[in-house]
Amino acid sequence: MTSFNNPIIPGMAPDPSIIRVDHDYYIATSTFHWNPGVQIFHSRDLVNWSLITYALQHDEVNLRGTNTPAGIWAPHLSYDHQTHKYWLAYSHMQNMAGREFNADSYAMSADSIYGPWSAPVYLTSIGFDPALFHNANGKHYVSILEWETRTGYQAPGHIVIAEVDLANGGIIGDWHRVTTGFTTRGCAEAPQLYHHDGYYYLLIAAGGTGYAHGVEIGRAKQIFGPYEPNPTGEPIITSAPQHLFSLGDPDAGHFEMVNPHSQMQKAGHGSLVQTPDDEWYVAHLMSRPLKGTTLNPLGRETSLQKMTWTADGWLQMADGSNLAKSTFEGPRATSGPQDLTADDLDVTFNTATPDQHFMTPYQSQTTDWVNTTERPGYLRIHGRNSFFSQVNPAIMATRATSLNYTVQTTVDFAPVHYSQTAGLGLYYDSNNWIYLCLCPSADGTRTILKVLQAKLGDRIDHRFDLAPVPASHADLKIDYADGQATFAYRFAANDEWQVLGPTRDVSYLSDEGVNGEPGEIGGFTGLFNFIGSVDAYQHASAADFSHYQVHNHHLTRKEN
């Protein structure tokens, strides 16, 4: 058998929900405050994956004002073999203040994975992480975490199941509380139902989405239980196999559970798929910290583990352990090779719409602020709010997918007011970014290059490292290496690259480095590269970008 590298989907691709329809595999992942919402990836071999579409791309949700890390959580893909429809369930997390965690959950369907998707049907506001199960008897069920807010009760709550009305929305009958988890890790969430050999199996995430994360399993003869836990009393997949008792703990980082012997951390939140040859795999999230740190710039990525069923009907990793691995055994029908350059980008703007890898925080991509038609061959971005805005930042961004890479672009921009900028940067959220930009000099007499930065909500103007821009035109480049960023420029294609200022520590642009409480992860989204423009003057200026490139280095994906 051939082994392949994890992650199979690097960069921000968390909460993977995997299905197979005939010989095609699909994975949906969370997108939080980013538009379009819900990434959908495709593979024919479980090894090589490509982004093919998004489910929420027609203003089905309003993400303006979304605080990190709220937004679109844990989409769940399913396929109803009786109606031949694809279904997608998801939560829109709107508030996390006071640990209230107010989320509305919806379901939508389509005849094709590419859509069009039906209008979202409301399911519930009981909690988050809904998953649909289409039973062989024609009934449909939803499993979800019921979020607990009562003092003195086990947090974060119960896993609940109910019959669901997919035609009209809502549930049929009552919610059934079935478990608060199958181990002592606590923080049960992301429940997903499967039926196999006479049992209903409930796969859940546990331990919080930090370093104690894991995948747990229980089973029952009836869909509403009672569910018996996996007899090992431990997760079936985790990066931290040592025992943990944390019942009632909030969803904390659990930094004490870092595994110093594992490249892969935070393995958990998995979903199960069966190949045509009766092989079984779990797709799950994981992270890769910067070497020697607990900082994860790439957020939570998607990996794969091969599974087997034991003689007494329990699911376990194929090697008999529960430790998630950085390689996996591919299906028998797959011989490779694995394309490790698939995440490189070389984008020009000669089509009617921008490349689908581009995403935008908070607002939607609409032609009134970004398009390829006003100046053919260029992506024109009209300046809007500052990048501190959670309403209308004019940003086109792609997921960072490596801990060592180069991103570059070419921009034409002629600012006339000090609040007008345009350029290339790194972005986590509205409070955390860094940006190599063209802007007017302080006296307004010329265009210059400088670096602007947001760190934990503070604005930093690196105003002593400047370069004059002779013709409102520049090539811009950022070299990112293990949390350090070097900014460079040139004004003609045959010029040598010039470095602007010192190499800067940008390791805070990571899940643990942004505005979190002590012991908590600050977010769980991930680092993006972006091109963008600001005009807090008259919304009258625009920047033209002729190309956008990302080249990942050390493409073995065994970077630390």
Structure description:
- This protein is mainly β.
- The protein has 2 domains: 327 residues, Tachylectin-2, Chain A (5 Propeller), CATH 2.115.10; 208 residues, Jelly Rolls (Sandwich), CATH 2.60.120.200.
- Strands 25, 27, 28, 30, 35, 36, 37, 38 and 40 form a 9-stranded antiparallel beta sheet that branches.
- It is globular.
Note the main attributes of this structure.
single chain, 560 residues, mainly beta, Tachylectin-2, Chain A, Jelly Rolls, 2 domains, 9-stranded antiparallel sheet, 6-stranded antiparallel sheet, 40 strands, 47% strand
Short description:
With 560 residues, this protein is mainly β. It has no helices and 40 strands.
